[in-house]
Design brief:
Blueprint: E1 2-5, E2 11-17, E3 22-26, H1 37-42, E4 47-51, H2 70-84, E5 89-94, H3 96-107, E6 112-118, H4 126-135, H5 145-156, H6 165-175, E7 176-179, E8 182-185, H7 191-199, H8 207-211, E9 218-223, H9 231-240, E10 245-249, H10 261-273
Parallel strand pairs: 3-4, 3-5, 5-6, 6-9, 9-10
Antiparallel strand pairs: 1-2, 2-4, 7-8
Helix pairs in contact: 2-3, 5-6
């Protein structure tokens, strides 16, 4: 693992591996670069760069929680690209990372050679957003790994019915810190304060940002069981971008792992379009 320092002095964790076309991966709201472990294992022939945003595992927490916002995080990504000397990159944006991709398309479109949105669009389903706010910044009540696995399966198995026990255990250890004192968040709990504060403001219309990707090769991967990206929003996205490469991944909720055959095929099509 390596560190990059933002202009306001925070160290952010990243991983840079392989050679070939540059693919920059941006993870979900509370996640880190391990969001893309499955994708990294399933791909080759690319330079895969993964960044953990401020306030998440491996990166510094921000003393000002108001900086946990998409504009600041997008600024961090541009600075990071400059740090690595990346003139252009395909961006894979998972959930929150997809919002950042849209901001980048609006502000530095010349830096994007393609975008893959992973289970995210310009509109969020209130059901999924409510679920996120239920757990955001709140440590699980489970006291150990077994209890944590049981809780994850109770909440998520309906959306990810094909995962075996070993995978659930892997995800539990990836998403949380488990020690003798219990289960702990591995991101800044102040992220909840940031989201609550931002929710007091009018919800911005993100469709104009989506439309600003008009000249950028675009792909969308959706979990068939997603409660955050609805079919209705997906259809609107397709209507605005008939050329958008698309896959609906069975047995996946929010979010697909991107190692699924249909997801990999979607990425391969995007890679060709981005050349």
């Amino acid at each position: 693992m390596s560190n990059f320092t933002t202009s306001d002095g925070l160290n952010l964790d990243y991983k840079d591996q392989g050679q070939g076309p540059v693919v920059l991966c941006l993870p979900g709201l509370t996640r880190d670069l391990s969001d893309f472990d499955e994708f990294a294992a399933a791909t080759s022939g690319i330079r895969l760069v993964r960044l953990t945003l401020r306030g998440r595992k491996g990166s510094d927490f921000d003393p000002n929680f108001a900086n946990y916002n998409i504009v600041q995080e997008s600024r961090d990504v541009v600075e990071f690209m400059d740090f690595l000397g990346l003139d252009k990159s395909i961006i894979i944006g998972t959930s929150r990372g997809g919002f950042i991709s849209m901001v980048l398309a609006a502000t530095v479109p010349e830096r994007l050679s393609g975008v893959l949105l992973n289970d995210i669009g310009p509109e969020l389903d209130p059901l999924g957003l409510g679920r996120i706010m239920d757990y955001l910044g709140v440590a699980p009540k489970a006291r150990g790994l077994d209890g944590l696995i049981k809780a994850l399966k109770a909440n998520m198995a309906k959306d990810f019915p094909a995962l075996n026990d070993a995978k659930w255990a892997e995800l539990a250890k990836r998403w949380f810190k488990v020690d003798k004192n219990g289960v702990h968040l591995n991101y800044d709990p102040k992220m909840r304060d940031a989201m609550l504060e931002q929710s007091q403001k009018p919800t911005p219309d993100l469709w104009p940002l989506f439309d600003m990707m008009a000249d950028i090769p675009l792909a969308l991967v959706r979990g068939a069981n997603s409660d955050l990206l609805s079919i209705e929003t997906t259809e609107k996205m397709q209507a605005r971008r008939p050329d958008m490469i698309y896959a609906n991944i069975p047995d996946r909720g929010h979010v697909p792992f991107l190692d699924e055959p249909a997801a990999l095929k979607t990425f391969e099509k995007l890679l060709k379009a981005a050349k």
